[in-house]
Design brief:
By secondary structure, the protein is of the alpha+beta class. Helices cover about 35% and strands about 30% of the residues. A hairpin with a 2-residue loop joins strand 3 (about 60-65) and strand 4 (about 70-75). The chain is globular, with a radius of gyration of 13 Å. The protein starts with a strand and ends in a 7-residue tail after the last strand. The relative contact order is 0.23.
Length: about 100
């Protein structure tokens, strides 16, 4: 089973998002983590809900939640999904 943790910079991302959307994002992330396994991951990859990002040194993934994009990485040793950022679609891929 995976656990969910947030990078400290995610708090800054949440300042630019409405409280209703923050609630939706957090609820969706907890549901995502509780159901996460290799079959579920393959299903989401096929439907385009998650995508492995290219061009990064470390393996990062994108999760679509309405108009927001959650960038995350899996740490297999600890079975942790670490949320790196939550941004709107327009600004999700800018550094």
């Amino acid at each position: 089973m995976y656990t969910l943790s947030f990078k400290s910079s995610v708090k800054k991302d949440f300042k630019h998002i409405s409280k209703a959307d923050i609630g939706f994002i957090k609820e969706s992330l907890y549901t995502f983590v509780s159901a996460f396994n290799s079959e579920y991951e393959q299903e989401l990859l096929k439907t385009g809900k998650i995508k492995k990002l290219q061009g990064e040194i470390e393996t990062l993934y994108r999760l679509k939640l309405r108009r927001y994009r959650v960038i995350y990485k899996k740490e297999n040793d600890n079975l942790v999904i670490l949320v790196l950022s939550v941004k709107s679609r327009e600004s999700a891929y800018r550094k």
